[in-house]
Structure formats: structure tokens, C-alpha cells
């Protein structure tokens, strides 16, 4: 099989291809771990890119793939050990780091299997974080956008709101007091700004109208 490494001036790592199939970012140390001698690879320069190529054994290709996968898993497992993220968030972060779709899918599957990722746990954390600054409707919409959905989501929402003693009217009142303290709510310009702000938070005009009349 052929290994092809492409490095541009912008990055310290190589974009690695095995038999023209992209696997992800590879550093010189990763090649050492996979027992691939970088010094024995053919090198060429194409514009701002350095290109290394070599014919490698199947075992070497498998080792390199395993190194890329293992590093990615360890990195995002450590990230999730410190905070809750959704699979949507992890996928976005991994794409930014130029991992292949195959590596991304396999890492996310393992993160779910090892319980680093958990949709219900993430949903509860997200709801608790935003229940006092966004409407229920907006919270649900944002979670669904991240691929977190199901009837159970509404159960968790109800449980958190009951547990935290959250009241929609109180949330609206608190947001107004926090963001528009000292401003004349009878002034039409202020009213419009307040209404627009609260509607961005997911509240309907009927929800907020009583506070502006």
C-alpha cells in the first residue's frame, strides 16, 4: 500500500493518505510510533506543500491508522471527562482538526460505548445551564439541532424545571431586570429592544407582552 503525506506551510502536521484514502492529521512522532521511517520516504515540493511518499506494508498502515485513532480517542475522552459535550460538538471539533470521517465516526462510537458521551446526561446539563436564560422552546430547538431528541427529552426538561423551581414569568422578569435595569420600559424604543431581546431568547410576544404594557 502507498502512504502519502502532505504538509503545507500553515500546519506542523501532515495530512495522511493510505492508498489515496484520507485518514487524518499525522505528526512525525506518530510515524515513529507506527515504526515508519520518515527519512526513507521520497520527498517532493509542490508550491507551498511538502509531499512525502512511500510504499509500506499492510501492518505499517494498520499501525499508523491505530495511532491516529487512539490519539483522537484519548484527546476527546479527556475533554469529555472535564465537561459535557454532545456528539454534534465533538464531530465539529474533530472536523476542525482535519480528522477523516471514518476516524470521527469510530471515535464517537467508542465515546458512546464507554459512556463518555451520553445524550440524556448532556441534555440535563444543557437544560440546567440555560433554563434561566432561554425559553423551553428555544432549549428544545437547540438540543434537537444538535441531534438530541426523543420523548424522554421533555421528561428531563420537566424534571429540571421542577427541581430548580423555574417559572417562565420569573425568568422573563429576571432577564429584563438584569439587562435593562434603570431603563424606561414605557419608552417605545426601549420596549422594542426588550421585545427583540426576549424573542431571541425564545419567548413569544404573548409571553412578554404583559411586561411591556
How would you describe the overall organization of this protein?
The protein is an alpha+beta fold and 213 residues long. Helix 2 (58-82) crosses helix 4 and helix 5 (119-130) packs across helix 7 (151-164). The protein contains ten helices and five strands. The protein has a five-stranded antiparallel β-sheet. The chain is elongated.
What are its keywords?
213 residues, alpha+beta, 5-stranded antiparallel beta sheet, elongated
- The value of Rg in angstroms is 25 Å
Strand content: 5-15%
Poorly predicted runs: none
Q: What would the average pLDDT be, to the nearest integer? A: 94
Q: Can you summarize the main beta sheet?
A: 5 strands, antiparallel
Instruction: Walk across the major sheet and give the strand order.
Output: 3-2-1-5-4
Helix and strand composition category? alpha+beta
**End-to-end span in angstroms?**
73 Å
The residue fraction in helices comes out at 55-70%
What is the element string, with H for helices and E for strands? EEEHEEHHHHHHHHH
Shape verdict = elongated
Number of strands: 5
How large is the count of helical segments?
A: 10
Strand and helix layout:
Blueprint: E1 2-8, E2 14-18, E3 21-26, H1 28-33, E4 42-46, E5 49-55, H2 58-82, H3 87-96, H4 101-113, H5 119-130, H6 136-145, H7 151-164, H8 168-179, H9 188-200, H10 205-208
Antiparallel strand pairs: 1-2, 1-5, 2-3, 4-5
Helix pairs in contact: 2-4, 3-4, 5-7
